[in-house]
Amino acid sequence: MRRERTTEEEDVFFLLDWLDDHCPLKKKKKIKHVLVDYTVAKSFWAQTKLATGVRIPQLYEATWAADLMSELRSRRDQAIIMCGM
Asked: Interhelix angle for 75-84 vs 39-52, to 10°?
């Protein structure tokens, strides 16, 4: 049985399709790229840093999600990052 996609899923699939046509890194397209590395994402995180002081640390492909939620980050920083993503 196939389930219907949610609006959020449709938005993600639309973005991924758009990246296929416009992104120079499309062959490396992964969720980390969309949320952190893509040009629009970099702009978003730069503005977030200006507004909140929260900076996205250097992230590694294999551990990036766990690194963002590391106990080394404050709960406030974790919340801002999760809301941004």
From this structure: 140
**Phi, then psi, of 5 in degrees rounded to 5:** -80, 145
The answer, as to whether pTM is greater than 0.70, is no
The per-residue DSSP string of 35-53 comes to IIISHHHHHHHHHHHHHH-
Q: How many domains does the chain have?
A: 1
pLDDT computed for residue 49 by the predictor: 92
Residue 18 lies in a domain: no
Give residue 41's domain range. 28-84
Per DSSP, the three-state class of 66 is: helix
